[in-house]
Amino acid sequence: MSAKHFINDATTLVSTALQSLTLTNPTVALDAEHKIVYRRPTNGEKQVSILSGGGSGHEPSFAGMVGPGMLSAAVAGSIFASPSAEQVRVGITSRVDPDKGILVVVMNYTGDILNFGMAVEKAKAAGSSVEMVVVGDDVGVGRAKAGKVGRRGIAGTVLVLKIAGALAAQGRSLAEVAKVARLVSDNIVSVGASLEHVHVPGRSADSSDGLALGEVEIGMGIHNEPGSARAKLDLPQLVDRMLTQLLDQSDKDRAFVNVNSNEVVLLINNLGGVSVLEMGGITAEVVSQLGSKHNIKPVRIISGTFMTSLNGLGFSITLLNVVNTDIGGPSMIELLDAPSEVQGWSAPIQKTTWEAKNEATRTGNTSVGQEVKPSGLKMDPAVEKTAITTALERVIAAEPEITRYDTVVGDGDCGIGLKRGAEAVLKHLSSKPLTGDVVVDVASIVPVIENTMDGTSGALYAIFFNALVLALRTLSPGEANAQTWATALQQSCEALSKYTPARPGDRTLVDALYPFVDVLNTSGDLTKAAEAALKAAEETKGMQASLGRAVYVGGSGHEEVPDPGAWGLAVFFLGLAGLKPADDGWEKI
Ligand SMILES: *[C@@H]1O[C@H](CO)[C@@H](O)[C@H](O)[C@H]1NC(C)=O
Ligand SMILES: *[C@@H]1O[C@H](CO)[C@@H](O)[C@H](O)[C@H]1NC(C)=O
Ligand SMILES: *[C@@H]1O[C@H](CO)[C@@H](O)[C@H](O)[C@H]1NC(C)=O
């Protein structure tokens, strides 16, 4: 468990967190002395007031649920401790509108039942119209083991608050709101699982929660209460166990609710410390097993952070068995879908969207738009093939050398990457002969480069060659000569420069590329251009890298070897001209 916190004083933590709600939501106010967050009075229609609360540490429950469509007030205790009866009494008698009656919803914990219960009795004695509904949705600990303690309330409580809150907002009577709240409470089951206990800010850190790496506690409560079992389970096994606890009607120790409605709501709740990414994976697993093993296809699937255990590394699964509310009015689903303006509830997908059940997909041919039309820019395919094949073979032969350079200044994968690309293009050429239409020929090589070369240089090559195809097309039709290539390459360099800040002098492949293109343009001579690239590649020796991984490698390697990317490209250009590097410049192959 992590005992690291930004706020270590538990009192400050709770009071500032409550205050923050008034900062981020203008509809709520705070009675700081009694730790009550309540809806500011308005001139709107009167409605039944709903009050809830409990220990802090379960945010956004409960203060984050205060606002139009949900709670009228929430009373907070200190972390994991019930508020006092006096706090609750103040909440009931003077922080909510009593005119249409007050519903108090409380989770089944001894302290909460006593303190909220005492306050309810006092308010009733004083003439208020108050009803109390107790939620105990947790099936984590079965009847035998729970004994007199009974079922605790966990995340399912939020569904009770949401549905009752929506009904109250519609102006229904206290009797109706209380009835529906009880009905929801009677039809929800939840179970949690955690990978470790949580640390309470301000308390001494006890790191021995006994959970080993890979071990999970099923049914752990939201205050570190022990669950029913600890085991080493992977996610599918864990979800299987949890769903069995929720649904198995033959388990006499549980079987609290028979989930048999044709409308079931699934709530997957983050206990506070699970990454959003992992919550996604958990949700997918739960939905998959509900369907395949229990034939349940929820009509609403809600996944998010609703009732936490501080930064608990766990989650809970809640199922609501939707039943008829029998009040001649909105269904549970409609109430769940109804709008609310609170920070702690989010079910962003609308009723109409769920019910549309749109299952359309896009299955269009992924190759469309990739086909290349002939350009009429011609070159002798035999000449093309010899030049490219020689150049690629030279790159493959130079792999050990390039790898050695990259081991000194980079992460050592440059040579292998170039070799892989070169081999793939050679293989492609052997199965798909060049046509002599240079646009078609270059374009056919582009996907091979894209699919085999990865990393930054792969992306740079891909951009460069795509730009080359476009540039060559603008120069078509005609006979492709050195001038055509130089112009097209120049345009490709320009395109490349939009996506990388690399310029000559930065110790990248650009150091070999630019001189090649320039000299080809001015001289029209491939050999001279390749020679210029070789010279420039050699001159990268001693240059400091200002881009790419080589920057982080540091050391003095850059004094000893040329940039491997620039070197590889120079070898390729020499190969195009039928040359290879030699001790003193180059020699004919
Ligand atoms: C709450 O717990 C008590 C025991 O303390 C138990 O008798 C009761 O059934 C529980 N209530 C709910 C709603 O689960
Ligand atoms: C997809 O489109 C490509 C190019 O237009 C075509 O060659 C191929 O046959 C199409 N494939 C299918 C499955 O339609
Ligand atoms: C390419 O060469 C021609 C002369 O052959 C010159 O006019 C032109 O400016 C050169 N282009 C670039 C970008 O250097």
TrEMBL record:
Organism (species): Sarocladium strictum
Domain DhaL: 382-578
PANTHER family: DIHYDROXYACETONE KINASE 1 (PTHR28629:SF14), TRIOKINASE/FMN CYCLASE (PTHR28629)
Active-site residue numbers: 223 (tele-hemiaminal-histidine intermediate)
Keywords: ATP-binding, Glycerol metabolism, Kinase, Nucleotide-binding, Transferase
UniProt: substrate binding residues: 55-58, 112
A Gene Ontology biological process term: glycerol catabolic process
Biochemical pathway: Polyol metabolism; glycerol fermentation; glycerone phosphate from glycerol (oxidative route): step 2/2
Listed name of the protein: Dihydroxyacetone kinase
Reactions that this protein is recorded to catalyse: dihydroxyacetone + ATP = dihydroxyacetone phosphate + ADP + H(+); D-glyceraldehyde + ATP = D-glyceraldehyde 3-phosphate + ADP + H(+)
Role noted for this protein: Catalyzes both the phosphorylation of dihydroxyacetone and of glyceraldehyde.
This protein's GO CC annotations: cytosol
Top-rank taxon: Eukaryota
Pfam families xref list: Dak1, Dak2
Gene Ontology terms, MF aspect: ATP binding; glycerone kinase activity; triokinase activity
Gene3D superfamilies: 1.25.40.340, Dihydroxyacetone kinase, domain 1 (3.40.50.10440), Dihydroxyacetone kinase, domain 2 (3.30.1180.20)
Domain DhaK: 9-345
Record-linked SUPFAM superfamilies: DAK1/DegV-like, DhaL-like
Family: Belongs to the dihydroxyacetone kinase (DAK) family.
